[in-house]
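Hey Z.,

So I finally got round to the GDP-alpha-D-glucose thing we talked about over coffee. Here's the setup:
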Amino acid sequence: MTRADLVVVANRLPVDRDDDGGWRQSPGGLVAALEPVMRRADGAWVGWPGRPDTTVDEFDFEGTHLVPVTLSRQEVAEYYEGFSNDTIWPLYHDVISPPQYRREWWNTYVEVNRRFADAAVAVAAKGATIWVQDYQLQLVPKLIRERRPDVTIGYFHHIPFPAYGLFSQLPWRRQVVEGLLGADVIGFQRAADASNFARAVHRQLRYETRATGIRIPNEDGSVRVSLAKAFPISIDAASFVELAHRDDIRARAREIRADLGNPDKILLGVDRLDYTKGIRHRMTAFGELLSENRLSVDRATLVQVASPSRERVEAYVQLRDEIELAVGRINGTFDTMEHTAIRYLHQAFPREEMVALYLAADVMLVTALRDGMNLVAKEYVASRIDNRGALVLSEFTGAADELGSAIRVNPHDIEGLKEAIMRGVEMPSAEQGRRMRALRRRVREHDVQAWSHDFLAALERARKANAS
Ligand code: GDG
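And the result:
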């Protein structure tokens, strides 16, 4: 039986099923970042294989031992689509959409978290390090600790942690706080998320919090310390630079511009179709700029990639209707035979096509109403090897804490958003260069490898402190 010294626990395994029944590595930064670490450590990864009612045996994949967790169709509906994506997701994104509080979803969430914890406990070697990922598994740190006091536990929260006034709506707030506190290191995207969490701990449990960590009294009178701190996630910047240098991808970027009728300026939005991303606000602002003749369709086209997401959750079905109504209205009003206002794509594209789009885009629009980090902003910046282009960036993203040279915007302020878009469209080349160089430096120096290194180093310090 395999026992690993490093175990990652995430909702999904890092692989997807091939058409011919085999497995291939899933796209995405987290998987790319952890792959070399897992390989070096002979690590194991616990996660759902992505299909309901399917049992898959443990197997090795490119140097990592994979431990599939089986979920029934009903569990996917209640734990994943329900509690994770229709309760926690809207609540933690400042209630942009009303969270649904359903007791049966919570019960299934507890049950499924227990199953993930069981699988992690079974595969972890004595004294192992276990790293739990994200809001679907908030109870797992405590469930592991109860059974395995020998292991060191980390948890990283990819989405925002809300202010206590909102968090306190959650009927199971105390259980969630206790669940997370099972970890030795609890990582957040922004310092503000970490302090919101520390406040929730204080309000719920009255534990003392210091700069060095939250002090959790043990039953024997001793104290255990859990560190809640910002570890802003990033991207595999070098892989974007590499793609941006490829001749075929550069040719594709020119082809995209030509296919759009060679507009002077291409504006671009790339988002999962999600109500947190501010896609409607962006379209309202763009539509008003067209109707006020500050932009025209022969001069500017907005390309909006809205990749399909959570299509079985009602709020997402509604959002899609609203966005497609808005696109239809704007295009119906402003399109000509030669030019379109918005080229809307409800599709997912290969990574190569995304980089071609980043290279083609003169102005990148990231207008999220709330976003843990927003990796798209970092990907755009990393891809701009010509040091040109402008990034309009919502102040409600984690990325805004790091990317100070972007054009900062409050997406709720439509007039301000219009001004920001025009600043991007009209930005002189020299200013683009100055800003883009600073943005690129930050992303290059703080890539996802640095992120995982920093987090694992903090866990290692926690392990040594516990041992002493
Ligand atoms: C969560 C948090 C946090 C999108 N469409 C396509 C595609 N993508 C890729 C992007 C990017 C990723 O998906 C999206 O990442 P984001 O960070 O922008 O947003 P979430 O999906 O909401 O991610 C977020 C993140 O976790 C990490 O901690 O930053 O705040 O919400 O990589 O490029 N990729 C491809 N085709 C598509 O059509 N290939």
